[in-house]
Specification:
heterodimer, A: TIM Barrel, eight-stranded parallel barrel, 10 helices, B: disordered N terminus
């Protein structure tokens, strides 16, 4: 019997959305970030994990232990590449040497899709190694989208861009962050890596409703979701990836998958990293929300 | 918070742009932002109150950043300024533990700040953050006084460790492949991950001691750090002078130090400079006695080096 289809705000059947052209038509479940403190556990215990996300830059080297570890992981697991330095929002052009290294790594991992951030990070050849906020202007959207297209054409792989946490806004901005994200991905015809923790962090720092954000991005373009923990300070919230996911972020996650369908989901935990099991169990909490959405879709 | 009615993502596209700023305007804004973010913090680890051109940073920040009801434009920019410096200092702390121990925490942090101000990162990866540190130290002797040789050699050794960790490994020449080759024509080169160092201190032993108390090199991620590792007291005495010849290399994906006899070091150094095997042996021998020593040890050396996969054949001979 055909499954009843739930329709998203954009009129796209949610049952069709998780596997889409922006994530290589895959249907990945819950993954976690591959991190050094867990290497030994993963390689010796071989725990069941649906997929790992790797930071591309950690493996864009020419040899040595990083690549040996990666090859051992690839023998057992599915891997998706996540970058931190493509800087699509730079005024500078894309770095061809960087793209060539990335292409070599893509051939090695067979990642079905590739993600990086909607941000800038270097200017005139000087690198900040940070994910710096964009001015939300139409011109910046066009420049950014052009480079996403250029990278995709060179790398020949679907690309999804991630919304970043931010702590500053520019006078020159002409639209909201979610309008900017939407503008960029429509112009670039690319996917979105929707980070619900980043939406929460930025909503607290810039006083907007995070549900407005979730409701107003093109859901059919969401290739992947991120969840993570953060740190609250007196006057702002910082994206630190060093805590479990808090309840308000889980609520946003639940809303996101209602909108987007049970999309591939990744827990980021990058500092004060606990045991592998603790990280994995935290990630697997996402299943209860995914199962609920699947049941609702089946009953609808 | 009140939730608004969902709108199409195409809404923004249909609006008329308020300005037509292109790449030049985007670059201008990014240059302003980067200049502020990359300006070293003050003594209290806060963003400096004045920009490089002497203008108040509060005014500079407010020209392009909006305040909110909790943070001024200056304070919002300062989050990025502090994050930038803490991230880079943290990376340097891990990659240059030896140098940090030799210099002491305070001087090491001042050096890092001066170095990164002169040579900001020019690579997508933090791995290359120190690739011009030796050059900087040679250009600025004030940072190496009063132990110039020790400081410079430690910086060279720690960069050699970075290179040994993940540089390329080319297809190695085996010992069998070297048999029956004419040494007057045979050119070999050392693997890209090998660095030869002539040292005046036993820094290999010093680094092993440090490593026993150290931590793994961290990875790139997109998280924000707003604190530095706690300073440590220099509990390991500085090494005493002792000349040695060292190869920093990699075996089975781990970094090792291999001490070399002086003649062996000179043979390898000559090969690395592009000499044929015959010429390398001739250049390495400074006397007839050394030539005899080299001749008698050559087979043993090459057997060991080949087993370690140290050589690859140059494409053009």
């Amino acid at each position: 019997m055909p499954r009843a289809e739930r329709v998203s705000a954009l009129g796209v059947p949610t049952s069709e959305m998780p596997a889409n052209g922006f994530n290589g038509h895959t249907d990945y479940g819950i993954g976690i970030g591959l991190r050094v403190p867990h290497y030994n556990h993963i390689l010796t215990e071989k725990p069941v994990v649906d997929w790992f996300e790797i930071i591309s830059e950690n493996f864009m080297c020419d040899g040595g232990r990083p690549l040996r570890i990666l090859d051992q992981i690839l023998e057992q697991y599915r891997v998706v590449q996540h970058g931190v330095s493509m800087y699509f929002g730079n005024a500078d052009p894309l770095d061809r040497e960087h793209l060539k290294k990335l292409r070599r790594l893509i051939k090695r991992t067979n990642t079905p899709w590739l993600t990086d951030h909607l941000c800038w990070g270097s200017v005139d050849g000087s690198y900040s190694h940070d994910l710096l906020p964009m001015p939300y202007t139409f011109a910046a959207a066009r420049i950014t989208a052009r480079k996403i297209r250029e990278a995709r054409d060179f790398l020949e792989i679907p690309i999804a861009v991630e919304n970043v946490s931010s702590y500053a806004e520019f006078h020159v901005s002409e639209m909201t962050e979610w309008e900017f994200l939407s503008e960029v991905v429509e112009l670039a015809d690319c996917g979105i890596l929707l980070d619900v923790n980043n939406i929460y962090v930025s909503s607290r720092n810039h006083d907007f409703d995070p549900f407005d954000y979730l409701d107003n991005v093109p859901h059919h373009r969401v290739a992947q979701l991120h969840i993570a923990g953060h740190t609250k300070y007196e006057k702002y919230v910082l994206d630190t990836h060093d805590h479990p996911v808090i309840s308000p972020v889980w609520k946003l996650y639940a809303h996101a998958i209602q909108r987007c369908g049970p999309t591939a989901t990744l827990l980021e935990w990058d500092a004060r990293i606990p045991s592998f099991d603790e990280v994995h169990n935290e990630a697997l909490k996402a299943n209860q929300f995914r199962d609920r959405v699947a049941k609702e879709a089946a009953l609808a | 918070m009140k939730r608004s009615k969902p709108i199409s993502s195409a809404t923004a596209s249909r609006r008329k742009p308020r300005s037509r700023n292109g790449v030049a305007e985007l670059r201008d804004l990014q240059q302003h932002f980067a200049r502020a973010v990359m300006r070293p913090p003050d003594r209290n680890q806060r963003m400096q109150s004045r920009a490089a051109d002497g203008r108040p940073m509060r005014r500079v920040a407010s020209e392009f950043i909006k305040p909110n009801d909790r943070l001024t434009a200056f304070e919002r920019l300062e989050i990025y300024n502090r994050s930038y410096w803490f991230r880079l200092l943290d990376c340097f702390h891990e990659d240059y533990r030896g140098l940090r121990t030799v210099l002491g925490d305070r001087k090491f942090e001042r050096l890092t700040s001066a170095y990164l101000s002169k040579y900001p990162s020019h690579s997508f990866t933090l791995r290359n953050l120190g690739d011009r540190l030796v050059k900087f130290l040679e250009e600025n002797p004030r940072w190496t006084r009063p132990r110039r040789d020790l400081v410079l050699q430690m910086a060279r050794l720690e960069w050699a460790i970075v290179e040994a960790f993940d540089n390329e490994k080319k297809t190695a020449v085996t010992a069998d492949e070297l048999l029956d080759k004419d040494p007057r024509r045979l050119r070999l080169d050392l693997q890209p991950y090998i660095t030869l160092l002539k040292l005046d201190y036993p820094l290999d032993e010093y680094m092993v001691t440090l490593k026993k108390r150290g931590a793994l090199r961290s990875e790139a991620s997109n998280t924000v750090e707003l604190s530095l590792p706690a300073p440590r007291r220099r509990s390991i005495p500085l090494p005493k002078r002792e000349q040695l010849f060292l190869a920093v290399h990699r075996h089975d994906e781990s970094v090792y130090y291999k001490r070399l006899e002086p003649e062996a070091f000179r043979v390898l150094a000559a090969l690395q400079r592009g000499a044929t095997l015959g010429a390398a042996c001739a250049q390495a021998a400074r006397s007839a006695r050394e030539a005899a020593a080299i001749a008698s040890r050559l087979k043993e050396w090459f057997s060991s080096w080949s087993a370690l996969g140290w050589f690859y054949r140059k494409e053009k001979s």
